[in-house]
Amino acid sequence: MRSPNRLHERETFCKYMSAATASCVLQSRSLRWSSPILFNDPFDVPRELSFGLSPDHISAALVDRMLGLIRQPPQDASKLEPKLRLIVEAVKRGISDEVQAELIAGIEDSGKTYKPTGVAMEAFRQMWRQLLPDFRILCLTESPAHAAMWYHYADQYRGVVLEFRCDDHADSAWLAAKPVSYPRDKPSVYTASGWAELLTLEKELALDRILDAATYTKSPDWSYENEWRITSFRRPTDTGPFTDRKFGVEELSAVYLGPNISEKYRETIIAIASSYPTLRLINVSVGMSREFEFTATGD
Fold first, then answer.
1. How much is the pLDDT for 171?
2. What is the dihedral of CA 204, 230, 52, 225, to 10 degrees?
3. DSSP string, 66-100
4. Does position 117 have pLDDT exceeding 70, yes or no?
5. What is the mean pLDDT of the segment spanning 216-241?
6. Are 73 and 91 in contact (CB under 8 A)?
7. What number of CA atoms fall less than 13 Å from residue 293's CA on the CB side?
8. Which residues in 3-141 belong to E strands, given as ranges?
9. C-alpha span between 255 and 243 (Å, rounded)
10. Which residues make Cβ contacts (< 8 Å) with residue 201, sequence separation at least 6?
C-alpha cells in the first residue's frame, strides 16, 4: 500500500559518513537531523537574511507590485497581508474610477501606502534567527558512487555509505524527501521584486517561501551531489540544535564499505550489521577503469 506521505517514486536514498559515525548510527538505529547553524558550509542555508538589497530598491519594487495588485486584482487574495487584502478585496468588489485613480496616484507619488522600513525587514530577520535553531534537516543523496562525496563526506574513502529503503509499509521518513534544485538564476527571494512580493504576503507564508528557497536550492556548482532533503522541527525533549530520530531495521537496506576503510572499522561494522537480518554488506573498490566496483562481502 502506498503511503500518503510519499512525495516521489524513488526506492532508496544514500547517506555518506565516516566509519566512526556509521558505527554509532548502526548501534543506535538513529540518524541525526541537524539545525543549519551546525552546517559548516557557508554556501548552504544562510544564517542571516541579508542579500545586499537596500530598502529603497525594495520600496521601488513594492510600488510596482502594489500597482499590479490594484490594476489587476488576483482572483484569490487570501494569502495577502491582512491590511493589503482589505484594499484588494475592496477593489475587486468595485470602486469608482476616481477612487482607483487617487489610489494609484498615491502609490506612484510616494509609495507610502505600503512602504517597507528597516523595522519591517528586521522583523523578518529576527523571525529567521529564531527559527533556525529549531529547524531540522536530513541530507540524503541518490547514489553510492559519487567520488567527490566519498572524499568529502566519507572520510576520504575511509568511511561508508548507508542505503535506506523507502518503505511505504514502515512509512519511512525519507518518503517525504524533496530534491534540491541547482538553478543558474537566483530564486526570486534574493531579488528586490521577490522581497516586494514577500512583504505583501502573510508573514508566515512569506517565511515559508524563504525557508523553501534557502533549504531546497543551491548553486549549480553543487549539482553533482544530487541531494535530497527532509525537514522538520525540534522536539520538546531536544537539548541541542539537533534531533536523533530512530529508523527501523527494515529501512536500512545496505552498507557500502569504503575502499580505504580500516580493518578495525570493517570488523566492527560487520559485527553490528549482524543484528540487521536483511542488510546487505557491500565492499567498494576502485578498478582499473578508475570506476567504483561493488561486490557483496564474502564473494
1. 95
2. -160
3. HHHHHHS--S--TTB-HHHHHHHHHHHH---HHHH
4. no
5. 93
6. yes
7. 9
8. 12-17, 30-34, 135-141
9. 23
10. 79, 80, 81, 209
